[in-house]
């Protein structure tokens, strides 16, 4: 084996930011065992136990360093989740700088890879004489929006949501302004200024790794990789998920329940690792599931009026206490409710599961595609509305519920969509398209697949920088 190539990886705080970069690193060292990866992890308060547990089962050529945690007292009281994440990285920069210099002095770092929230860290790349890469954990359509935002910022003067016609992004399905990511919905807000600044950073790096594959997002990838775009090199290397990583428990109660259900009969309902619903919306969802008569497996969190309340930490209440009176008893033959967390990959892999009501987080979207499970797209925050439009209007592998004037998806609408997906003609068409996409995702990761070859190009570029730029 030749000389080892060292890279440093910096995720931003939050379990769902750490996982994509860890899975990427595992894929890298599996295909290229002569790489060594060091994770340098900022955290808000003490790191979550899930993160620590996950880091204990890594290959020997991936190691991790936890930086001294930032406390919530160091942050403004009214800071939203995105600002908390950003400020945690900013306040961790001195200790990050120290660790990077220390690593680089022992063995030259060929590349520094960060997620978009940690892009400030790339300011050290020049000093370290290393290549700067951003791992973009969403799809190529979301990346196209981010790369195009500085142009939109100049071209459109008011709020994007007030633009009457759909906005056309390079290589993407047309989008209404209200479906653009949360941070850009109020241009006077600090979140918007930070988001715009992060998108400008994307334009100045040595490369962008995107968790997608050419066969799924051909138009968007073509648009952002054209030489005349002026963008940095973009490398589609996905789908990279927890599938196949054996990191989940098996034999849990909900899997035993699934074993006793007919094939493709169960709708899996989950809003990701951070998504929460209001009490009113939990009531309507419960009503809709019961009314549909379809089998369901529902991962339930305690209610909150903030859609991403569970993102950086969850409440200690028992979620089942917030279900409508008598719901569990009435639906005991029809459904199974599991509090807070479930082994998602194992569930999506199960033969009894025939649909997934999802918040359209990109990890969940890719996992569903890899397992060929059709979707009901119920976006909550971040870029999830964009993903929902791509899945429903672009790929046509999802149904999206209509939201009432009160901002609630009503029980009748839920029931109608669930029945349509699970037993209607439209559901059968969606299932056929999803199966074709599943096969394409498998091919992309084969030995000679598009994403495997692209990752090899990146590895070669990094190996060529063993001694610095």
UniProtKB/TrEMBL annotation:
<protein>
    <recommendedName>
        <fullName>Glycosyltransferase</fullName>
        <ecNumber>2.4.1.-</ecNumber>
    </recommendedName>
</protein>
<dbReference type="Pfam" id="PF00201">
    <property type="entry name" value="UDPGT"/>
</dbReference>
<dbReference type="GO" id="GO:0008194">
    <property type="term" value="F:UDP-glycosyltransferase activity"/>
</dbReference>
<dbReference type="InterPro" id="IPR035595">
    <property type="entry name" value="UDP_glycos_trans_CS"/>
</dbReference>
<dbReference type="InterPro" id="IPR002213">
    <property type="entry name" value="UDP_glucos_trans"/>
</dbReference>
<keyword id="KW-0808">Transferase</keyword>
<keyword id="KW-0328">Glycosyltransferase</keyword>
<comment type="similarity">
    <text>Belongs to the UDP-glycosyltransferase family.</text>
</comment>
